[in-house]
Amino acid sequence: MPPIMHLLEPRPYPSRLMRWLSPLIAVIATLVTGSLLFWALGKPPLESFHIFFIQPLTSSYGWSELLIKACPLILIAQGLALGFKARIYNIGAEGQLIVGALAGGGVAIACEGSDSAWILPAMVLAGALGGAFWGAIPALLKTRFNAQETLTTLMLAYIANYLLAYMVNGPWRDPEGMNFPQSIMFSDPALFSPLFEGLRVNTSVFITLFAILAFWAFNARSFLHFQIEVGGYAPAASRYAGFSANRTAWFTLVLSGMVAGIAGVGEIAGPVGQLNLNISPGYGFAAIIVAYLGRLHALGIIAAGFLMALLYLGGEAAQVALQLPAAITGIFQGMLLFFLLGADAFVDNRLRRPLAA
To answer: Measuring CA to CA, how many Å separate 289 from each of 86, 202, 304, 305, 333?
Structure first.
């Protein structure tokens, strides 16, 4: 007897309620699977979850670190969400973050010794231009040569990593840094000011706050946002209405690159304080999960960003308290994305058993 095959059949009218509930389903499935993982590793699940999700938030330092990690994730995800709505898939925000950090760091290094108040604004501007430039490359390749932006943005992320390694190992390496691949430590005029004494959270959070308000207003009030959504959901209708697909590609890729570049400056002028090989723990890639978990909505991305930031903090706490490897953070991120995609698949489709011949 031949095996019985089941097929996914598109639903004529996917449930809007279930689409918004699918992130919650994904989180619950991740927690259930995570408890089984802790049990298989010989760790008490309840104690492990307390260390992973509660312990990091029991001090002001933990909340400060949560903000530090959530801000770049939210900032980058806001830009990525616009492109995803138009089905422009920028997978290389990590590279745009790095190039933005290089551009901003170059300003800080060039202005070493100066106490001008314009150094930090110039760094932010340079970071925005650097990230926008790195986003413009795949935009050009897509609109001119029809190259898939999924591949070009990802490959450019690797190039950005090698460029960073070259600069901190060569021209910008700190001569007094004991041969470590890092630049000089930036002076105070090139750093964001701490908000509270003894904590690392700094004034860069206001950039993220401004971006949230700006993207919310753009999504709610802009006709260009309407064009972007139409282009993603109904390409034929978009072409019939005269909306330019090329302009949408340029706008979304350049804008998402720009905000990723600003996030890069927020790292090197904030908690890192210099250029080195570890300026980002993968924020550009994690922001993809944040964007989809937040349903590509400016406000939903905030909650998703804090959840992803908590996974970073919990992973660090689990390494110390539970003696688990650093990969535990990536495992939870991967499970969250897997279950989210799975839940969305069944929101858009239903399982059908074909009729026997």
So the answer is: 17, 25, 8, 9, 8
